[in-house]
Every structure is written in structure tokens, then in C-alpha cells.
Structure to design on (781 residues):
């Protein structure tokens, strides 16, 4: 490890521009003639559009145009799609209802867009939008997913009778039922996973530019995967041919999954630019974000976990109803199926598992991936059930987990996944030692003397990252491959550009990807530039989500570096009249091993481009590309322990300590990894204690501002104790597993387990607000 290479705690290169206000986000973009858009949105959760009268709005000051869904339809713009096909257990395909970028017949949730107003300023566009008169015929509304399945409930889409999208299963139901029937003990529990709003710091935005001279479109957007945005907008939405569409995702201020998808606004801004003849920019306000950004979670599950007489798990049966909202978003079908049910084995050797998942339409915002995407739902279900079982069995929750750990790898679970490597005992031991688990009884007694209730909770999570290989996910219904691409360009003076199909929106790619190059070639970090987020600069890529940037994106970079290194050594060997096999690269020089002969890196690069003295038959230049398609998922895992103190008079919960012991495989930059874990823990604690999207019975969103949607603040969080162990991933060249989602996955069950331990009442749902905790504590007494 060098001072700037793999394993070094290098400060993030990109932070200079972010901390000094020099970041360039979509809303910062300005082009000549640019105008501003405001969307007219439905105030009703379910209604027929009778008539849209835009005559008054069109005559208002500054208004360039008012466009609606009928015009969009007439111009051939297609429906939004879900890109992962799921089949029900009877073999029928999922029931995908029509989602128009601008609704022209029916609106299905509050915030559904029906028209766009383009004007000289945001204020003028907003005034005109308020003057658009839309006549609605209100329809009955259904919000609750379980109720939506009942006969006689309002139907959202004619394609989906009883609002059922698919009824899917995985595992062996007969074997699982047999295990439950033969069990010495069965724990049964109903698990609610609350709906969340993603709340990235930067709201969504889009700038659509149509150049009539070249018949070319450019879209600036807040996207986690601009290449997929271009692909989908060209191939499915008929916005523009792919070769005439450039998508640029500049600096993006957080995503957490919510910026993976293509939303109506990008499509409509591009179309409106052609229709009006001006560039069109839209930036969401925070209320629009609450209304229209894809939400996360929202599961209700019934669980049965069966144990033998030795407290070994012999069967797990899960029945889940997942609310997907009014429409199917891009990856929504994969979240409660292959990203959720396939992780229900957790860290445990469970011989029989069966999960049934029904997904449902309701008159709410679409639901899709949010940090962790299915893995938090699986972990919360499993770890709340394990803690409940330990209490019912009268055994230590740590020992119940320990006796059921998987210890032999590779391990084939009953639900598709094949775990490649891990040491779950190591994470458990590290967490228990850091938390002083054995000293908890004394701390609980001390707290009781002060009238406080103290509790401790544990969570052992596993997740699947770097979703792949492409052939496997394709066979499961994915509409795209999940490989990644990279190109490494060595310039004539020796500086290096790395072009990656991964996209950074807070992960620190400009630093960590550069560290790979610094480690390999011994060049200064500042001489390495990372290029991403522009479909005209970077060859096709699949973006960033699912903690794939390290395991997949960096692995593609490594393959390209291998090719660059091989050619560089050939050139150096030729210049020094040495054997290629004797060339080593150290400290920015290519050396002949065992001698004092050396060629500086920049001199080799210059030789590649002057081409005056290259090996016979070698092409000039030094630029190589690569694609990397993983052989398997990666499987980060860990153990989290939370200790809380509850005031029984008020229900207020104070987190006394939070310990996170993770196994992420090899780590490129420990400081960035710690930051990722801290952020994930904050989001997970937010879900467990504070956050929750709520609609009333008419479908009105009650949590559409920060006055009503509670986000975690600094004083809600403790100083985290984080550590890592390392069982390298054997299936990628760097041994990386991924770290971006772990904190949000493992923390909610640890915290709820701690609170329920403190108050002596297991009947507690997220978010565990002070009122809920107070009520549960008093009910227990």
C-alpha cells in the first residue's frame, strides 16, 4: 500500500469543489434561451380527467407554452415501463398498468402530472400553472395494500384485477410446511416495514435541450445511471433515437436509489423543448419530491420460523404483501422478489425456506428501490424474528444466532443465493466485545436506579451486492445486463484519464478509482482524472446502485489497467532493450528488475504517442477499454449492536451506543467506507425512530414537508463505533464486497430489538416514535 494507493485514508479529491460551492449540479446549468417549467399536478388520488382548459394560462405574462397529455400521446411518446419481468406462480406475466408521462385520461395518485407550463421564469410558470383549469371526476381511493386486494375495492388499472400485479413464490413450500409441522417450537410474528421518502439533499431536476439544426437532444438530469436513461428514453419512450440523444448527469447530490429511474419529468422536458423551440428546465421543490420521488419499503409480512429441540432453525415461511403504489417504476418488481426473498436465509443455515410475495397497486406514489432495496426488508424481518424467538425460547439472542450460523463456504441457500465467503462469528465477536455485551446487566441495573429502562439489541445482516452475472439476472427477468465498462487513457505526458460507466453521487469515485491507478502505476493521485456521467464521453455503462461501483465498476477498471500495463511494459522493454518479463513498475517508473535501468512513466507515455521507437507492429497510443461481468453477487455481512435508554414517562429513546462490525472484503479507502457506514446508519436509525410516509383515507399525503416528515438530526445519533474484518470476495479481482447500503440494512432491527428489550413489549412498529414507545411501555406494565 502506498500513501495514495489501495488501503490509504486519502481525503476525497472532489470535496474541494463541494465544500467551496463550486459543484455543478443540474439546476446550475444554464444555456442560451433557456426557459422554466412547472408541472400541473393532480390534487386527487384517483380521478378521471374530464377537461383541461389552458386558455387563460396561455395568455399570461411570460408563458411560452402549455402542453398536456393528449399532445404527448399524439406525438408518439410511450409509456413508462418496469424493466424487470416477474411471472406469478401460475406462470402469468406481471400486470403492468399504463403509466403516461402526462396523464390524459386517469390520475392515480396525488401529484400525478397532467400538464406542463413553460415560461420565462419559474414564478411566471407557477402562476400560469395555477391558472390551468382541470375538471376531474373523482373516483374511489384505496391506500392500504392488503385492503386493495379485497373484492369490491377501487381498481387502479384494468390490466390488474383486484389490484394484484403478481403473486410470486420462491423456495420449497412442501418441505417448509413439513419442517414447521415437525418443529419443537415455532415463532410467529407479523412484520411491518414502514414506507419511506428518500430525501436526497439535491432534489430531482431536468434540463431538456432540442437542437433543430442537428435534430439532436441533450438532457441534463439528476441520474444515477445516465446511459440507462438514454437507452430507455430512446428504445421504449420514443423520445429520440439513441444516437441523437445525449444524457449528462453532472454532480448529483445524493440518490439513495431514488435517482436510478427515469421519471416523467425528464421525458416531458425533452419533448417540450422540441414542441416549444426552447430549452426547458425543471427543478423539483421539496413538496414535489415528497409527492413524486419513488418511495421505499412498505411491506407487511407474516412469518413462521421453526426450530428443532436444539434451537436450530429448520424452516422459515414468509407471506409478504408489498405496496408498489400507483404505477410500476423501473426496478420496482425486483425489489420485493429477487432483492428481498433471496436474502431470507440471512447468515443462517436454514434447510427449508418458502416465501410468497404479492405486489399491489394503490393510490399512492410509486415504490421502488431505496438504500438497500429489499435487503433491509429481508434483514428486518429475519432479525426481528430471531430476537423474538430468542425471547420465547429463553436463550441469549447472541447464542441463538451463533448456533445457526453458516460456517462452510461456498454455501447454497434454498433461495437461489450461493454465498462465496464469510466469517460471521468474527463480526459477532467483534461487535459484542466493542459493545461490552457481558457488562450490560450492570448498566441496565444502574439505569433502573435512575428510573430509566435500558435495552440492548442485535442484528446480524447479509446483503447481496454487485448484482450479476448478466446471464443469471437475465434469466430472472432483468431487462438489461448488469456488467460495467471502463476505459483507461494514458495521455502523451503521462497523465491518466479513467472513463467509467459507474456514476458518483456521493460515493467518492473520483478518489477511490484514482487510488487504483496510483497503486498500479505509482503516479500521483492528482495526475489521474475520473470521467463519468456523460453518454457522449463514456462508452455504455450501467450506473451506480446496489453497492456495485467497487465490485463491478472498479473491476472493469482493473481489467483495463491490466491491458495498459501490458502494453506499457512492452514499450519500456523495447526502449531499454530488456526482456518484457523483467519489467516492473514502481514509484512512477518502469524498471528492469535487478538493475538500475529505468524509464519514467511520462517518458514511456510520450514514446507511445511520438511512435518513433515502438516495437515492430505495435499501434501508437496508450488507451485500453474493458467490460466486466461478475461471476456472482458479493455478500457483505456484519453484526450491529444497539444499546438504548427509554424514559418511561415520555417514551423518548436515547441511543447510548451503536456498534457496527462489518465485513466488506478488501477496502480501497477506509475513511470513505466509514463515511458510507455512518450515512447508512443515520438512514436506518431514521427509519426505525422517526421517518414514515403517511396518507389519509382520501389519498392526501400528510407528510409532504419537513414539518411533518421527521428526519434524523445530529442530536438523534450517537458517536458510532465502527470496525471491519476481512474475508476477501473470491469472485472479483480486488476482493471487494461493497459497503454503501450496509448501515441502512443492519441498523433498524438492532434498534427496535433494543427498544423492545428495554420496555418489555415486543409489539412495536417502526417508526418507534416517543408516543408509540410510551404507549407500548405502559401496555407492558
Amino acid at each position: 500500500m502506498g500513501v495514495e494507493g489501495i488501503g490509504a485514508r486519502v481525503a476525497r479529491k472532489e470535496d474541494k469543489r463541494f465544500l467551496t460551492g463550486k459543484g455543478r449540479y443540474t439546476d446550475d446549468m444554464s444555456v442560451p434561451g433557456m426557459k422554466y417549467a412547472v408541472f400541473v399536478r393532480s390534487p386527487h388520488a384517483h380521478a378521471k380527467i374530464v377537461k383541461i382548459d389552458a386558455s387563460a394560462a396561455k395568455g399570461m405574462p411570460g408563458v411560452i407554452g402549455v402542453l398536456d397529455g393528449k399532445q404527448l400521446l399524439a406525438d408518439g411518446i410511450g409509456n413508462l415501463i418496469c424493466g424487470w419481468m416477474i411471472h406469478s406462480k401460475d406462470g402469468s406475466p406481471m400486470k403492468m398498468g399504463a403509466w403516461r408521462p402526462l396523464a390524459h385520461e386517469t390520475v392515480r395518485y396525488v401529484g400525478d402530472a397532467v400538464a406542463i407550463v413553460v415560461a420565462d421564469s419559474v414564478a411566471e410558470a407557477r402562476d400560469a400553472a395555477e391558472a390551468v383549469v382541470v375538471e376531474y371526476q373523482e373516483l374511489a381511493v384505496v391506500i392500504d395494500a392488503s385492503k386493495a386486494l379485497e373484492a369490491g375495492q377501487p381498481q387502479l388499472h384494468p390490466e390488474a384485477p383486484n389490484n394484484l400485479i403478481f403473486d410470486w413464490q420462491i423456495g420449497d413450500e412442501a418441505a417448509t410446511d413439513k419442517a414447521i409441522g415437525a418443529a419443537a417450537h415455532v415463532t410467529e410474528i407479523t412484520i411491518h416495514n414502514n414506507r419511506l421518502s428518500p430525501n436526497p439533499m439535491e432534489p430531482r431536476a431536468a434540463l431538456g435541450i432540442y437542437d433543430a439544426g442537428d435534430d439532436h437532444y441533450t438532457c441534463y438530469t439528476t441520474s444515477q445511471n445516465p446511459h440507462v436513461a438514454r437507452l430507455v428514453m430512446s428504445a421504449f419512450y420514443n423520445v429520440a433515437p439513441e444516437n441523437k440523444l445525449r444524457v449528462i448527469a453532472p454532480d448529483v447530490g445524493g440518490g439513495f436509489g431514488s435517482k436510478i429511474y427515469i421519471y416523467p419529468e425528464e421525458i416531458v422536458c425533452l419533448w417540450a423543448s422540441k414542441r416549444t423551440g426552447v430549452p426547458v428546465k425543471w427543478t423539483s421543490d421539496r413538496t414535489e419530491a415528497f409527492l413524486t420521488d419513488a418511495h421505499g419499503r412498505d411491506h407487511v409480512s407474516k412469518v413462521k420460523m421453526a426450530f428443532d429441540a436444539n434451537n436450530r432453525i429448520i424452516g422459515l415461511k414468509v407471506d409478504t404483501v408489498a405496496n408498489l403504489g400507483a404505477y410500476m417504476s423501473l426496478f420496482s418488481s425486483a425489489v420485493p422478489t429477487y432483492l428481498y426473498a433471496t436474502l431470507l436465509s440471512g447468515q443462517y443455515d436454514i434447510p427449508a425456506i418458502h416465501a410468497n410475495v404479492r405486489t399491489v397497486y394503490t393510490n399512492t406514489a410509486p415504490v421502488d428501490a431505496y438504500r438497500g432495496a429489499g435487503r433491509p426488508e429481508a434483514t428486518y424481518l429475519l432479525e426481528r424474528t430471531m430476537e423474538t424467538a430468542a425471547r420465547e425460547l429463553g436463550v441469549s439472542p447472541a447464542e441463538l444466532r451463533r448456533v445457526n450460523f453458516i460456517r462452510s463456504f461456498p454455501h447454497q441457500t434454498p433461495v437461489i443465493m450461493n454465498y462465496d465467503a464469510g466469517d460471521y462469528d468474527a463480526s459477532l465477536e467483534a461487535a459484542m466485545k466493542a459493545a461490552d455485551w457481558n457488562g450490560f446487566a450492570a448498566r441496565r441495573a444502574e439505569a433502573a436506579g435512575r428510573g430509566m429502562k435500558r435495552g440492548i439489541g442485535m442484528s446480524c445482516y447479509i446483503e447481496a451486492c454487485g448484482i450479476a452475472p448478466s446471464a443469471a439476472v437475465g434469466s430472472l427477468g432483468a431487462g438489461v445486463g448488469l456488467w460495467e465498462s471502463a476505459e483507461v487513457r494514458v495521455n502523451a505526458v503521462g497523465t491518466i484519464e479513467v472513463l467509467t460507466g459507474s456514476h458518483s453521487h456521493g460515493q467518492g469515485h473520483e478518489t477511490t478509482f484514482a487510488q487504483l491507478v496510483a497503486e498500479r502505476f505509482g503516479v500521483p493521485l492528482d495526475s489521474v482524472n475520473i470521467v463519468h456521467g456523460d453518454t457522449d464521453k463514456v462508452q455504455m455503462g450501467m450506473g451506480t446502485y446496489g453497492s456495485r461501483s467497487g465490485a463491478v465498476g472498479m473491476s472493469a477498471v482493473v481489467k483495463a489497467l491490466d491491458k495498459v500495463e501490458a502494453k506499457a511494459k512492452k514499450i519500456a522493454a523495447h526502449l531499454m532493450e530488456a526482456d518484457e518479463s523483467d519489467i516492473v513498475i514502481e514509484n512512477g517508473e518502469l524498471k528492469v528488475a535487478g538493475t538500475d535501468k529505468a524509464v519514467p512513466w511520462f517518458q514511456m507515455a510520450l514514446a507511445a504517442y511520438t511512435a518513433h521507437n515502438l516495437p515492430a507492429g505495435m499501434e501508437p497510443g496508450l488507451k485500453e477499454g474493458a467490460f466486466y461481468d461478475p461471476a456472482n453477487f458479493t455478500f457483505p455481512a456484519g453484526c450491529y449492536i444497539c444499546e438504548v435508554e427509554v424514559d418511561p414517562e415520555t417514551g423518548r429513546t436515547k441511543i447510548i451506543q451503536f456498534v457496527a462490525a462489518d465485513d466488506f472484503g478488501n477496502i480501497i479507502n477506509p475513511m470513505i467506507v466509514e463515511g458510507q457506514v455512518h450515512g447508512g446508519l443515520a438512514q436506518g436509525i431514521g427509519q426505525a425512530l422517526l421517518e414514515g410516509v403517511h396518507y389519509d383515507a382520501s389519498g392526501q399525503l400528510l407528510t409532504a414537508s419537513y414539518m411533518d416528515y421527521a428526519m434524523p438530526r445530529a442530536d438523534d445519533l450517537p458517536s458510532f463505533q465502527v470496525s471491519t474484518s476481512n474475508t476477501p470476495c473470491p469472485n472479483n479481482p480486488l476482493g471487494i464486497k461493497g459497503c454503501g447500503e450496509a448501515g441502512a440494512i443492519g441498523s433498524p432491527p438492532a434498534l427496535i430489538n433494543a427498544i423492545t428489550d428495554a420496555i418489555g413489549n415486543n409489539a412495536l412498529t417502526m417508526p418507534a416514535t416517543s408516543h408509540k414507545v410510551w404507549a407500548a411501555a405502559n401496555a407492558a406494565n
